[in-house]
Design brief:
With 250 residues, the protein is of the alpha/beta class. The chain has helices spanning 18-30, 49-53, 64-74, 77-80, 107-110, 113-123, 135-141, 162-176, 187-193, 198-201, 238-249; strands at residues 6-10, 14-16, 34-39, 46-47, 83-84, 95-98, 129-132, 223-226, 229-232. The protein has 11 helices and 9 strands. The protein is globular.
């Protein structure tokens, strides 16, 4: 595409990851693109509050810079007036960005057939798609009507690695239960199951539990680009992920 575009960013009613939404929103708007938010019924969404307050004893949540960006996002007109998923026309959008989150409210978004039909329609346009962390599950579960297989079946991708999901659960399960286990299956296992050749197509990225990219330094971040599709692992990749997605928008 040439010039600014309209990027669709679907969300659940509650529990999305603040970093994976606020950072791309900020970078996209700074680049001149217009972000359209959408929820199931067009209601204003709410974040995973524990990521703002601190997951465990005030720690393990979003970093201060991401919280500040979310505060700006929460005051924006576009965030306050999302469209209903069913009213969005895929052809009217220039890009699709699928953020993640792990708390229970995310299941509304991760397993919704109305959203999956919208995603399938957009995938067929050949325009840029980005997914980060649990957001990759939306693509893994979206079927190509022509083949009956996941739209990711022939793509290289990453997602939330199993070791990260397992470590977060082990660290917090004694107090928070299954807060970090959205489903019985690990995200990585389900994504691998959607691929034709997981050993070749799935890219885990460098191992690490605390290395994060920042607004000015991408050396600790990781993203996978396969044609017009961009994927990343977790909030620590959000800046690099957003920059790679913006590259695809042109």
């Amino acid at each position: 595409m040439a010039g600014p575009g309209r990027v669709l960013l679907p969300l659940p009613d509650a529990d999305f990851d603040v970093t994976e939404v606020a950072v791309p929103w900020r970078l996209l708007t700074e680049a001149g693109h217009r972000v359209t938010f959408a929820t199931e019924r067009g209601e204003r969404p709410a974040p995973d509050q524990q990521l703002l307050d601190g997951v465990l004893f005030g720690r393990l949540g979003a970093v201060p810079a991401a919280k500040q960006l979310f505060g700006q996002l929460a005051r924006s007109t576009e965030f306050d007036r999302p469209a209903p998923w069913g009213d969005v026309v895929a052809d009217d959008c220039d890009g699709l960005l699928l953020p993640g989150g792990h708390a229970p409210g995310m299941r509304q978004y991760l397993g919704n057939t109305v959203l999956q039909r919208l995603v399938a329609d957009f995938w067929a346009t050949g325009r840029p798609v980005g997914a980060i962390c649990h957001g990759v599950l939306v693509l893994a579960r979206t079927l190509d009507p022509a083949t009956g297989r996941s739209v990711l079946h022939d793509r290289r991708t990453t997602c939330l690695p199993k070791y990260m999901e397992r470590s977060a659960y082990w660290l917090t399960g004694w107090r928070l239960g299954r807060y970090y286990r959205t489903y019985p299956a690990y995200v990585e296992d389900e994504v691998r199951g959607a691929l034709d050749d997981p050993g070749r197509q799935f890219v885990r990225g460098p191992v690490g539990l605390s290395r994060r990219g920042t607004a000015t330094d991408d050396r600790r971040a990781f993203a996978v680009v396969d044609g017009r599709y961009v994927s990343a692992r977790w909030p620590g990749d959000a800046y690099l992920f957003a920059r790679r997605f913006i590259d695809q928008l042109g």
